[in-house]
Amino acid sequence: MDFRPLTRATSLEGATVAADQQLAVGTCGEDGRAGRLDASAVVIATGAVAIVPPGWQLGPRVQVLRSRDDAVRWSTAVGGLAPGADVLVLGGSWIGLEAASSLGSAGMAVSMMEQGAWLLPGLPPEVGRQVREWAEAAGVQVLLGAPATGVLADADTGVMVTTATRELRAELVLVALGAAPDTGWLLTSGLRRSPRSGAVRTDASLRTADHRVVAVGDAAERWSPRYAAWLPGGHWQDAFDAPVVAAASVIAGLAGRRATGAYDAVPYFWSEMFGHMLQWTGWLPDYRQSTMLRRGVAADWTFGWLTPGPGAGLAALLACDRPRDAVAARRAQAADPGGAPPVSAELFVDPGVPLKQVFAAPAAGPAAAGAR
After folding, report:
1. Which CATH superfamily hosts domain 275-357?
2. Mean per-residue pLDDT over the chain, rounded
3. Could you say which residues of the chain have pLDDT below 50?
4. Which of 92, 118, 156, 303 is the most buried (most CB within 10 A)?
């Protein structure tokens, strides 16, 4: 294996042209020297990069949290703070909330700014309100509807963050405003990319427009036959499972065989924050087009979103401290060809009914009748 650490890809040549033409990846090492790697097949797994607004300068006092190196720098910075130090988290989604939870547990004075009207703005406000209660109970100051307009760090006085109406100071700032696929180096490759995110688009076998090139993880957006939609990568669960299919597609291509494997898993991820475990399963492009149901009490609950129209199925589920709900939903969704198994809304909202019992039994066809 030719391992080249501290080397980034800068271009991909030879894709989407004659199949007998060698692929070539342009590289740039830590010393700035340009290089080239020739290959018969390429796996794109460059992940994602943190979004940082133009003009904001990262440094010891203003950091992001995306890669392993980011985590090392962040841990070092937090470890150098005294208990009670002011730390500001910009962004109220998953990474920002997990960081705020850890910072609070470490004894820091944590503030969080989210430009939206509620935390976890990609989900309904009911979820955001619940998470805000946890954050504030843990001592986190939550500021909503307050987009940061500028960040200015000073080695001696800390960081000043400005909004349209106020200024805040902190000793350390985490910029957690989301991430974008790290695919800018593929701009001239000829590969299809998502017009929304820039992720490389693949088929269900994780092959790109050039079948010698496969893509996985945050850098990819795969076609899902189950949902008839483009699904982004995102959580380590995809990173753990999808490479098996990607490797099989590469091996089949090099051997001149047709790729037969497919990765069409139901999206799943989990998050821990403020002493709670959240588990998500399913695909929900727009919660506003779905009916939301809730089961459970304030301490532990499950939200479910149903597909619109008659014969509603469970499109997505978010379980808080109810792992059995998450497991039951994930299994039922995986067994359903469309990822949204029919569900009884009346039984779903009853927390005393095990979730595995709320899914409607399939209609008995001739084969089932004969079996009886």
Report:
1. FAD/NAD-linked reductase, C-terminal dimerisation domain (3.30.390.30)
2. 92
3. 362-372
4. 92
